[in-house]
Amino acid sequence: MYNTDDYIKLIKERLSPYRFNHSMCVADKARELAKKHGVDPDKAYIAGILHDVTKETDYAEQRRLIEQFETMTDLEINNKKVYHQMSGAAFVQSELGIADSDIIGGIRYHTTGREDMTTFEMIIYLADFTSADRDYPDVDIMREKTDNDLLDGMLYSLSYTITSIVKQGRQIHPDTINCYNYCLALSVKH
């Protein structure tokens, strides 16, 4: 269905060695989590490889890609940290011809999350947060929570992210707040 070797070659050409290594670590973690949670591990691996495909692309080019598929809000325009998830989803559709909604959604929401996240999207989000190359404070706790229960991993990671953004005095994307509330409501039912 997809030629993994071509995607690996593509990101190796487009990304710095650091970002390439990160993408491959995310792909490995995504495949591992997918197997554990009954999601297609090959598709998760592809989404992991491609999740940062536009991370090092010029912001003007990223914005051009994004605006082919969606209208950016003022908050998004002024928060370049979310560009790559949006432009990455646009890139895989427009440049690679990928139409798979799981892969597109996994890339599109791997930074902010969103309300009604699918299991596949959670896996890509958490694989990015817990890949082998990550070494931020609490990463071991995050890995343990994620490996035991995706929802616990989501709640912990979202709390971590929201707290970090608040401490930096930056705006929080509404998708992140909605994702937190969604996961919290799910955990009560869980």
Describe the structure in your own words.
The protein contains eleven helices and no strands. It is mainly α and 190 residues long.
Q: What order do the helices and strands come in, and which of them pair?
A:
Elements: H1 4-14, H2 17-36, H3 41-50, H4 59-66, H5 74-77, H6 83-94, H7 101-108, H8 119-130, H9 139-148, H10 150-167, H11 174-189
Helix pairs in contact: 1-2, 2-3, 2-8, 3-7, 4-6, 6-7, 7-8, 8-10, 9-10, 10-11
Spell out the key features of this protein.
mainly alpha; 190 residues
Give a brief description.
The protein is mainly α and 190 residues long. It contains eleven helices and no strands. 68% of the residues lie in helices and 0% in strands.
SSE pattern, N- to C-terminal: HHHHHHHHHHH
Average pLDDT confidence is 95
Tell me the overall shape.
globular
- Terminus-to-terminus distance: 35 Å
Strand coverage percent:
under 5%
> Main β-sheet: number of strands, strand sense, barrel status?
none
Q: If you compute it from the alpha carbons, what radius of gyration comes out, rounded to the nearest whole angstrom?
A: 16 Å
DSSP strand tally: 0
Residue stretches low in confidence (pLDDT < 50, at least 5 long) are none
| Total number of helices | 11
Share of helical residues: 55-70%
Structural class: mainly alpha
